[in-house]
Amino acid sequence: MPYGPVAYRRQLRTFGALAALAPPAALGVFALLALHRGSSTAGVLGFASALFAAPGLLVAGAPLATGGTVYVLAILASAAVWMVLGAIAARRATRRPAADWRDFWREYLWLAAGVWIGVIGALLAANVLLGQAFL
Q1: 36, 104, 117, 119: which has the highest count of C-beta atoms within 10 A?
Q2: Please, what's the b/e burial string for 79-89 (b: 16 or more CB within 10 A of its CB; e: otherwise)?
């Protein structure tokens, strides 16, 4: 730690929200590539990856909703959620005096797992409500 633990903690708190966007962005790029591949397996994998990257798509009604603005707003709202989770993870990771990025990612993955479990629950609920296979 070149400037000491206080400066390192400040760095974690400052950049934690931005760093939280990296995993969903990578999942989003993977989803785009998979959706443009054309096979049914890649389509299901791409759709699931897109929902894990941007859980706001479910709130917007994806894939049943039409219109690009709905999807853009859902993606922006999802990015805001991921940044808030990153800020919370940074705050929780820096409770320890000697916190590092490993502590941040550990806290962040616990929070992200909660979001992903919620996405799975929403998909299962959509299957029950629609009465047919959704995926």
Answers
A1: 104
A2: bebbbebbbbb
The pLDDT tens digits of the residues spanning 52-84 come to 999 998 888 777 767 778 888 999 999 999 999
* Cα–Cα distance for residue pair 124/75, rounded to 1 Å: 21
Q: How far apart are CA 23 and CA 8, in angstroms?
A: 22
Dist. CA 25–CA 45, nearest whole Å: 16
Whole-prediction pTM:
0.85
Residue 23 CA neighbour count, 13 Å, CB half:
16
Query: Which residues lie closer than 8 Å to 125 by C-beta, 6 or more apart?
Result: none
Q: Give the contacts of 67 (CB within 8 A, at least 6 positions apart).
A: none
Please give the tally of structural domains in the chain. Answer: 1
Question: 98: which DSSP letter?
Answer: T
Residue 43: which domain range?
A: 5-130
Q: Is residue 135 part of a domain?
A: no
d(CA 129, CA 93): 39
- Percent of the chain's residues with pLDDT above 90: 53
